[in-house]
Design a protein that fits this description.
With 459 residues, the protein is α/β, with parallel strands linked by helices. Helix 4 links the parallel strand 12 and strand 13. The relative contact order is 0.04.
Length: 459
């Protein structure tokens, strides 16, 4: 056997050697670039990403030259200073430095990346003014600087960003007035405003951006109204209102008088709203309306006009104080999914869903729901799945049998009493869906198993 192994034909040996040499050359030619930062930082050489988040760094680690354009994640550390020329040996296109303690940025900190750095995250640091180094970034598209104790936006820096900057996130409690210098940013199409506590913006605050502004997000502000110039922003596509405790639904309705014909998405979260603003009359392209943790007790009849949008298929309302399904939701006849969870729904009445003809899924979990009228789902011929989990229902509602397409029913953590007297009527159900949940009175016996094994024995 040993002799046979060593008697390789010369031609095959040369071929094998050639393949090995080519493989070595290929690996050498396509060698991955060196990681710019040492351990404990880590690198993905293929994608040229440096991961150095949450490493308890008090200063930037030594950096070495590396080819290509890199993404750096240096967030959630204790870094205080970005010195001059730190990144000079590496070309950076994305830099994440948020949630540090940075108070000083050298004027030439980003030297070498003036024409490559597109996205810069410096939010939640200790900067008292906009660093001059940012103004030297000729290709900067997006900057996040909120959560720094800046009083204003430095004009000389902002002026240098006029031609390139398109997205800006800014604001802090230290910023006691609207920075007029922002009007120099004529190409801005996205504004995120954080933490400012003044009650009003100048009426012309958005005039400069009227043709470009597409995204507007307001977080934890003290605003009591919106400026009239918001009505000139007719290309608005997406809005977020979050934790604006002094901005009522009525004030939003009064501020937005023209509506937004291109609005596709809007979120209301934890603003203290007791109802939703009536601002959707022209939003015929709306696809997403999200409501979270708002103490809404009712919805006005003009909240959603009839046949609002053929694109709005799912509506989630979570953490409200609604005690019933609002009648105005019937105007949203395009809905195939409705979710009202973690609210105060106590009863579903016959007319609550009667005009939601396309409704396919309904989520009502985590409500004190105890009663569902027998004809509540009579018109919901498409209803295939319903979640009634973590409610107060003690029986399987007979209304479910009239939802002819029903496939699944979630009654997890409902105190259902399994007995012939209580749910024996299920025996007459021709096509029983799959149930999830357990029997409260039978030590957690599966509700589905009880229905399958015991219901047929009921008289």
């Amino acid at each position: 056997m040993a002799e046979y192994v060593h008697q390789i034909p010369k031609s095959r040996f040369l071929l094998f050697t050639t393949v090995c040499i080519q493989t070595v050359l290929t690996l050498t030619t396509h060698a991955l670039p060196d990681c710019p930062l040492p351990l404990p930082c880590e690198c993905n050489g293929n994608q040229q990403i440096v991961y150095c988040s949450n490493k308890t760094l008090s200063e930037l680690p030594p950096i070495q030259k590396s080819e290509g354009k890199w993404t750096f994640y240096l967030d959630d550390n204790g870094i205080k200073v970005i010195p001059d020329n730190y990144f000079s040996g590496v070309e950076v296109n994305f830099l994440s430095l948020e949630n540090n303690d940075i108070h000083t940025v050298g004027d030439n900190a980003f030297q070498g990346s003036e024409d490559s750095l597109n996205y810069l995250h410096l939010e939640n640091n200790s900067l008292t003014e906009l660093p001059n180094a940012i103004g030297k970034l000729r290709q900067l598209t997006a900057v996040s600087i909120q959560g720094n104790p800046m009083v204003d936006l430095t004009e000389t820096v902002i002026r240098n960003l006029t031609s390139c900057l398109q997205l800006i996130s800014f604001g802090s409690k230290s910023m006691t007035k609207w920075p007029n210098n922002i009007n120099l940013l004529v190409n801005i199409f996205s504004i995120d405003l954080y933490d400012v506590q003044y009650p009003e913006l100048p009426e012309d605050a958005f005039s400069t951006f009227k043709d470009n502004l597409v995204f507007l997000n307001l977080y934890n502000t003290g605003l009591t109204k919106l400026p009239s110039s918001i009505n000139d922003c007719q290309n608005m596509s997406s809005m977020i209102f979050q934790e604006n405790k002094k901005l009522s639904a009525n004030s939003i309705t009064k501020s937005i008088t023209r509506g937004f014909p291109f609005l596709t998405s809007i979120t209301f979260q934890d603003n203290g709203l007791t109802t939703l603003p009536s601002i959707f009359s022209k939003s015929t392209r709306i696809r997403r309306i999200i409501v979270r943790d708002e103490p809404i007790v009712y919805l006005r009849d003009d909240t959603f006009p009839l046949h609002l949008s053929k694109y709005l298929h799912y509506l989630p309302l979570s953490g409200t104080r609604l005690t019933s399904i609002p009648s105005v939701l019937s105007n949203l006849d395009s809905l195939t999914g409705l979710s009202i969870t973690n609210s105060q729904i106590q009863e579903i009445q016959d007319g609550d869903c009667s005009r939601l003809f396309n409704l396919g899924v309904l989520f009502l979990g985590y409500n004190p729901l105890s009663q569902i009228s027998e004809n509540a789902f009579l018109n919901n011929k498409q209803l295939g799945s319903i979640a009634l989990d973590h409610t107060n229902l003690t029986t399987v509602p007979k209304a479910l049998m009239k939802a002819l397409s029903l496939q699944t029913v979630d009654m997890t953590s409902c105190p259902v009493e399994c007995s012939c007297k209580n749910i024996g009527w299920i025996k007459s159900w021709k096509s029983i869906p799959t149930f999830y949940g357990s029997c409260y009175n039978l030590n957690g016996t599966s509700l589905m198993i009880y229905i399958t094994d015991q219901i047929p024995k009921c008289p």
